[in-house]
DNA sequence: ATTATATTCA
């Protein structure tokens, strides 16, 4: 061998050197046994040159050159040589199959395998892993089966690496017994064999089997490694088992695996799924090396746990650190824009997404549908939804929920039915969406029907969210007793659900029921601020000022304060917030003047202030003045002042819009000729030309 | 030659 390498070295040191035919022959012969002796692409080219010079027509030498080229993944060079062969020998086929595979050209790789078999050449252990990988990548199960059969006939299923590749392809097809069979047939197994089975079980939902195998592998003298751990961490993430997850984290640190990016991302994800965002951020921060995936993990963790601003901050930081965002980055961050209703930011990201060519990604388009719907652009949402290829249940649900929020119940229902026709089974979220749609449109019968049938038709038992939607449906419609009955059938009704009924008691002025409901709420949730505020308002509305004051007093004694009513509007990328009776906005006086002018025009159009919802013990004139202070009106007035004529005004309010403001905004939309979109805490109102899309029902 | 991590609706 040393002499062969000596020849090679001589050739390489002086490419112009003339080797004898004999030397080249010796060299090639040795290389047939040890192609690894060539250690660089340029050496491979030297070799090729020598072959061309001495034996250009020898299929064996040509094959050797192909083999050497393919070791360096040089597909084009390999192909050039391969095409010169009339009937390629086995080595040429094997090399080209592998070379295609390592270059990700799986279709061609498989085609060459088929050619090889047709030519009568017998494949061996060196090609099966590549071929199986190609089958796995292309999800070509039928060919995979055929290859498996071929492997068994050749007795190759005992071969370690081929066996591992076989396990891998079988786990990709879902959980079945053939995985275990292959695993047990193998005469030798290494950690990859174990890891592949474990990962397969984990991904196919066989969590217990996966964990049992992790315990078993110790018996075979193998310790879990980074592959094992990143395969099983998602299990604890799914089960929200932070104790087990922590245990793994300890093991990771003991074995020094914490520098591995896969492990780090899995840990970040595990902690955030277990609602431990702080831990997840800590793992991210101490992981020095970061990639798009670990950034995505931490960003998604923040967003999923409601830390939208932190998520956005990290997203910006990622861009600053020159980490290129991938499609997952966008689908992770978009919900932050949706929840914060930051339309402009959402639009900017949408532009970025289009520039990256990610707009055909279902995850991203579904998140865009949701973002546009939540930001009031239901038409844009519908347009994007219509363009989604391969819509999944989440895409449909986002659109249905969007319609629900905008009060388009009929559209929501027809989408829901269409989804079923396309063979997509609704899950509990989709049902929540359809019930919400019925609730926002007062469609009692339809809602009740979906609710009653959900268990038998979709196999989903009503959860809190479904009861909440139904309670809301009855409550809004004034069917307070029905709502009370329904909630009472629940095993453990929550304060939130009772509160839906309580707020209906206020609207429908039912003080007796309100007292009953309030006491139910305080039983389960004594600190429920909203309920105390509501109760005090209900008393005040009924003129029972003393009782109202008493509730307020209790609140003060308990040290709880209500969140002030506020509205906000985005103008030129800046969010302007208006809090009830707060005078701090720099244009406060101008806004007041504008509101007075509007008021005059409104009165000319027949507006009479409805002071029935002003819950202060003051005279009517003062009540009228208090209505001016309502935050949504001031936000709208500001919007009109600071945007060009005709621009749609979009305002968000943190609590339900009041009756008087609703009437006022209808008139304002007509007077100033603007479309005004107000989102309160449960839905959208589109005001245009004196009308509102909610049809007076909210 | 074969193995693993992150994403949309509530």
Automatic annotation (TrEMBL):
GO terms for molecular function: RNA binding; zinc ion binding. Signal peptide: none annotated. This is DYW domain-containing protein. One of its GO terms (biological process) is RNA modification. Transmembrane segments: none annotated. Keywords: Repeat. PPR repeats lie at residues 89-123, 190-224, 291-325, 392-426, 427-462. It comes from the Eukaryota. PROSITE patterns: PPR. Residues 606-698 form the DYW domain. InterPro entries: DYW_dom, E_motif, PPR_At4g14850-like_plant, PPR_rpt, TPR-like_helical_dom_sf. Belongs to the PPR family. PCMP-H subfamily. The keyword Repeat applies.
